[in-house]
Amino acid sequence: MKDRVAALLHQQAVCYRLQLKVLSTSAFEGFLAVLFPLMFATAALLVYRIDGDPESMQYAGLGAAIMGMWTCQGVVASSLLSRERWAGTLELLVAAPTSLTRILVPMTMAMSTIGLYSVVATIAWERWVFDIRLEIDNWFLFVVSVLMAAVTLATVGFFLSVTAIRYRTSWALGAALEYPGWLLCGFVIPVSLLPDWVQPLSWAIPTTWAMDAIRASANGGSPWADLAVCAATGAVYAVAAAYLGRRLVDSARRHATLALT
Amino acid sequence: MSAVEALDLGRTFRTQSGLLRRSRERVEAVRGVSFTIEPGELYGLLGPNGAGKTTTIKMLITLLLPSSGSARVLGHDVVDDVREVRRRIGYVFGGDRGLYERLSALDNLRYFSELYGVPPREQKARIGSLLELVGLTGREKERVEGYSRGMRQRLHIARGLLHDPDVLFLDEPSIGIDPVGARELRATIGSLRDQGKTVLLTTHYMFEADELCDRIAVIRAGEIVAEGTPSQLKERVGDGRVVEIETYGVPPGTVDTLGALPGVRSVAVEERGQQQVLIVSVEADAEVTQAVLGRLGDVRVGRVAAREPTLEDAYVALVTGS
Amino acid sequence: MTSLRIFFIGGLMSYRAMFGWLSPWILIPSLVVSPICQILLFAYIGRSAGVRDDEFYVIGNALNYAAIPCLFAMASTIEGERQGRTLGIVLTTPARRLPLFLGRALPVIANGWGVAMVGVLAGVALLDVEIPSGAWPALVFVVVVTSASCTGLGLAMGAVVLRVREGATFGNVIFCVLLVFSGVNVAREDLPGWMASVGAWLPLTHGIEAARLLADGSNLADVTGLVAREVGVGGLYTVLGLLLLRYFEAESRRTASLERV
Question: What pTM did the predictor assign?
């Protein structure tokens, strides 16, 4: 039993390391995944700057730091399997005896790593360009909340990426979700400002709760309730993805879409 | 227990074309293919492009669900016992794709060894010996994006062997490879069989099938039209001769008129640069040269030669349906 | 008359080829949903920060997103010429050069215009935007001019991409630069001095300003200065692009630099 756990961890670690290597050496997936949200964050902060209210600068600054994680998970993750398909490796992944879940999890974790890098880069950028020093009351809780955001975003990314097994064009879906995510998760716009009918959509995304938790840790409040809901919603995506993944692979085998470009 | 058993395998594809006026067609890529491969055999699936070779292989390696029929690999059903099948087989295909371009060969092999469940302790040794087997030692740290087609192909084979599978499926492995590289590849494939592995090889190069395979199945338009050892297949045209006539411009209809001559089994035309070479397959004792030349009339004729039939002639006869 | 044929027919042919691989599932999210989302994003940021009104952000972002087809479609067209080995022909065919290239550009300009107009109309429908009916003809005209000038930038970018290769990354970076520097979400007087100066040399900047003035009730005569400047900037990039193409093509005849895939 111990051997099997050790082998599993080894597999996850090696696959994670190598997928991270593939991502970080790509201009489009590495560099741009960090730059694009950074520029949008800059544009948002330029607007808030006109108002000049330090509290809203803090608000926007904190959210802007996390925005990049959504890009990495939404856009890049959903095109993950499409890229495998174009490279001709999707078939090999499916034909391997390891379950698809064990193959996809380290991939999305690698993506989350890029996302975390984006957080650090954005905070540094904000300090340098806008002179925003983020006031964090409880650094430990802050880091825990950011990690929770990364993990739950990985489950969302995992969910989005399995659709690509069956549908060749689902990478476009992920790309199309980038902006809606920025709108809905409360990064630079308070959820309460959105129309009432839209707000349940925000609550269905674990990142919204993670963002609330992050703000709570920064302001000295308690993030635990938000973290609990975040974890629960994230788990729903993970379970849905695992289930859907298996069904979609079978469907792909039936309809022969694994090799098609 | 046989290594691979295909029973009446069939696969139909539904294709859609056009955006506004969607026309749906059903294409029967594979219809009722049956064969058995014994352990340790190097079995060839030989056929022209589009005959259904790749589709057949993909059904056997569990990437495609058969529309009809069944198959077993090492006793496990390819539809129900998917994981058991995948553990014991290796899949190698020709072409440029199928590798992580930005990773080195070593990293690619490390990645796939994890996926194939190679125990961590054995990985280093296994990867090392496989790199040596395929002749890539010393270049394993380079990124795959800089590899030539031949090197990629060899890396593919190394990848397919990582978990020491009992059955190896090779789909057109020498496609697009230069003659020297292809020869080395064939030597490697031959040595696999010598190690006791069962190999299913698809190819459209008949000399490759002739050289390597213990038995060959000739597949055409989704059906197997002949099966046997290379010598058995040659025997089908063996007790005859082949007359090759170089011509410069053969008028249409010639093939039919010549084919109607007594003693002639089949006629094929091969373009060789400026010439069109008539390849006339004749019965053993038939003397048809004069009759053929007579029928050709005013057509300018070059060399005329008679030779023994080869596997290629048998193959051409089988796949052109004459 | 022949020049006119080359202008229209030649342009349409190469444009269609590019879209051969795009299905409606990709086109519609990219060019309709995404700009609307970007408009909503910044309109709400504006509301949250209490800066300007919805109309300001609708016009800015609608025109910003028009850059996407202008940049990418133009770069694709040029790449298509390179792949078809017709680049040399296109550049050296005597006397037909200009209508030929302009013909390639026309569908692109139309595409950009379409995306911008859809954005504006959506903004009017979904947000608090009121544009006087008399302003529309002038607005439509200004959007055409802006789209044309952006296509000029697309030409220059397309030329660079021929040699630099990472087209998708480059295009996105330019899009981000336009977002931040062209006054898309921040009026020129509110931008830091150096940013406004950079913006003056980019397409979109003057067009956006003119469009905003028109939507606020000015008439065409008032904005001719801005329109002229927009045309000038666009012309500048067009000339630059053609020169670069000439240079790269000549270089390629010596070193086969354009033959690499």
Answer: 0.79
Q: Are B213 and B44 in contact (CB under 8 A)?
A: yes
A237 touches chain C (CB under 8 A): no
Round to whole Å and give the CA distance between A16 and A22: 10
Going by C-alpha positions, the residue among B218, B227, B166, B233 that lies closest to residue B4 is B166
Q: How is residue C221 annotated by DSSP?
A: G
The two counts, helices (H) then strands (E), for chain C are: 12, 0
Task: Answer whether A98 sits within 8 Å of B114, measured CB to CB.
Answer: yes
B115 in contact with chain A, both atoms CB, cutoff 8 A: yes
Nearest to B143 by CA among B177, B100, B109, B110: B100
Q: How many CB atoms lie within 10 A of CB B7?
A: 15
B89 secondary structure, DSSP code: E
Q: Identify all chain C residues contacting A47, using CB atoms and an 8 Å cutoff.
A: 42, 45-46, 49, 51, 185-186
Q: What is the pLDDT of residues A63-88, one digit of tens each?
A: 999 998 898 876 777 777 777 887 88
The end-to-end CA distance of chain C, in Å, is 37
CA distances from B75 to B2, B72, B90 (A): 8, 5, 16
Residue C107 pLDDT:
86
Q: Which of A28, A44, A180 sits opposite C45 (nearest CB)?
A: A44
Task: Check if A250 contacts B (Cβ < 8 Å).
Answer: yes
Distance from CA of B54 to the nearest CA of A (A): 11
B40: alpha, beta or left? (left if phi > 0; alpha if psi -120 to 50): left
Instruction: Please report how many Cα atoms fall inside a 13 Å half-sphere around the Cα of residue A5, on the Cβ side.
Output: 2
* Contact with chain B for residue A93, Cβ under 8 A: yes
In angstroms, rounded to a whole number, what is the distance separating the alpha carbons of residues B145 and B143?
A: 5
Q: Is B36 exposed, middle or buried (0-12, 13-18, 19+ CB in 10 A)?
A: middle
Taking the Cβ of residue B65 and every Cβ of chain A, the question of whether any pair is shorter than 8 Å is answered with: yes
Nearest chain A residue to C127, by CA: A195
Q: Looking at the complex, does the CB of residue C30 fall below 8 Å from at least one CB of chain A?
A: yes
Q: Which domains does chain B have, with CATH numbers?
A: 4-228 (3.40.50.300), 237-319 (3.30.70.260)
CB pair distance less than 8 Å for C186 and A182: no
SS3 of residue A120 by DSSP: helix
Mean pLDDT of chain C: 83
